[in-house]
Automatic annotation (TrEMBL):
CDD domains: CAP_GAPR1-like. Pfam families: CAP (PF00188). It is found in: Secreted. This is Golgi-associated plant pathogenesis-related protein 1-like. GO terms for cellular component: extracellular region. Keywords: Secreted, Signal. Its main location: secreted. Gene3D superfamilies: CAP (3.40.33.10). InterPro entries: CAP_dom, CAP_sf, CRISP-related, SCP_GAPR1-like. It comes from Drosophila lebanonensis (Fruit fly). Residues 1-19 form the signal peptide. It comes from the Eukaryota. Transmembrane segments: none annotated. Residues 20-148 form the SCP domain.
């Protein structure tokens, strides 16, 4: 019975792993922006509240639908992996972007928004759908992806990609999963 209690406590603790979501997403963005010698973003709590509200709507509908606001840029994602993987997948659009002839393209707007030079603020929200998917909404202010402004706002990478630094959430998972497996193996 005591072992079962420990497992229940551990499982109740798991949602707290995402408690650092905002910091992790912000750090993931800034780690990429530094590669382009672009100023770091700062977290905007009001934008995060609004992003969380929109993420809740998306999770309820189980659909990715951009908001109608033009006050900010917005990247959307759903995942069962740590939400920072969304930032990596958005940034990987760099492989489709032509710095010699920059133009707006639906296949690269996630990437260009991440490194858009004049963007200063970031808001992050997440919600879990009924089927267990995390719906992630990241908002940017001022918005990027403005036609005619790509040349000065989307600059090539100056630095090679650094080491893959793990987020706090990923470090917690690395510690908890083996512990959970040990506890479960003793119960079975």
């Amino acid at each position: 019975m005591q072992k079962l209690f420990c497992v229940v406590i551990l499982l109740l603790y798991l949602p707290a792993i995402w408690a650092n979501l905002e910091d992790d997403i912000l750090a993931a963005h800034n780690d990429l922006r530094v590669l382009h010698k672009v100023a770091p973003l700062r977290l905007n709590s009001q934008m995060s509240k609004e992003a969380a509200a929109h993420a809740k709507i998306l999770a309820e509908k189980e659909d990715l639908i951009h908001s109608d606001s033009t006050a900010y840029g917005e990247n959307l994602c759903y995942t069962t992996f740590p939400p920072t993987t969304c930032v990596k997948s958005w940034y990987d659009e760099i492989n489709k972007f032509d710095f010699a002839k920059p133009e707006l393209s639906k296949s690269t707007t996630h990437f260009t928004q991440i490194i858009w030079k004049t963007t200063t603020d970031l808001g992050v929200g997440s919600a879990k759908s009924a089927d267990g998917m995390d719906y992630v909404v990241v908002r940017y202010k001022p918005p990027g992806n403005i036609d005619g402004q790509l040349q000065e706002n989307v600059v090539p990478r100056f630095l090679k990609r650094g080491g893959n630094r793990r987020t706090k959430s990923e470090n917690v998972w690395i510690l908890i999963i083996p512990l959970l497996l040990v506890v479960l193996s003793k119960l079975l």
